[in-house]
Amino acid sequence: MSWWRRIFSLRSRGLPAVAEHQSSPTTPDSPTDELEDDLLIEARNLVALTGPKSPHELTRALKIGYARAVNIAAATSTQPLQVSKTPISDDTTRQSGAALPKTSVEPVATKLKKKRPKKATPARADLPPLTGRITGGHACEFDVVGESHYQPALRKLRNSRHMATDNDFVADIVAEPDNPYDKNACAIYIEGSKVGYLPRGASADFFQQVADMGVTGPWRFQTKAKLSGGWGDRPMVGVLLSLPKS
User: Fewest beta carbons within 10 Å, which of 7, 73, 195, 203?
Assistant: First the structure.
C-alpha cells in the first residue's frame, strides 16, 4: 500500500494508521491503489479548482489513457481532497484572499543627447542674366581677394570634388555698384556662392572696359577658375581666375 493511502485515505476515514510491520493485502481495495501519487494529487487539485471532470476531460487534461482516467475520475469523485506536496505557511493562507500589492516601477531617467547645431549653408545669390564669357586661353593665375570671409562656401566647393583630378570651375564676375566701400566693386561667385572680389585696381579697370563696350545696367561675365590651398601650410582656400595679370 502506498504512502498516500497510509497517510490520507485511512486517516480521512477515521481509521487507525496501519503499522509498518503489517503486510499489505495483495488485492487493492480501490482502483486508486494502482495510480501514481503525483498524478492523483494533480487530478484532485484540478477538480478542486475547476469542478468535477469526466474521464474524457481528464484524458485531455492529464495526457493519460482512458482506462486510467476512469479510475482517477472515480477516486476524485469519492474523495475530493485537495492536497499539495508543497507546505503552505500561515502567512500565505491569510494572504490568499488579498490582492497582491502593485509594484511601482520608477521611470529610468534617460540622458538626452544634445543636438549639435547645424552649420549655416551659404545662400545662393540671385545673379543677373549672363552678359558674356571671357576667353583668351589665359592660365588660372589671377588671385582673388577677400577669400578669408567666405571660407565655409569655399570649403564646401573644395570638398564636393577630388581636387587632384577635378579642379575646373566656372566663376561669375558680377558688378556691385551699390557696394558702400567701392562703387567699382566686382564680386566673384562660384556655383551661386560668393567667394571673393577682384582687387580694387583690377575691378576699376574691368568696369572701364565693360563701359567701353557699351554695356549698361547690371552685368555678369563668366571665366574659368580653380581653387588653391586648403591643406598643409596653406589652410586657407583661395581662388585663381583665368584673367590677364595687370
Answer: 7
Burial 182-197 (b: 16+ CB within 10 A, else e): eebbbbbbbeebbbbb
**Side-chain-side CA neighbours of residue 59 (13 Å):** 8
**Looking only at Cα atoms, what is the longest distance across the chain?**
138
- Give residue 147's region: left, alpha or beta (phi > 0; psi -120 to 50): alpha
CB 123 within 8 A of CB 152: no
Tell me the whole-structure pTM to 2 decimals. Answer: 0.50
Least confident of 30-34, 140-144, 213-217: 30-34
Q: What is the reported pLDDT for 161?
A: 86
Residue 52 burial class via C-beta count within 10 angstroms: exposed 0-12, middle 13-18, buried 19 and up? exposed
Beta carbons of 74 and 31 less than 8 angstroms apart: yes
Handedness of CA 219, 191, 148, 242 (dihedral sign): negative
> In this predicted model, which residue has the larger pLDDT, 159 or 101?
159
Strand partners for 176: 185
What is the grid cell recorded at 213?
563696350
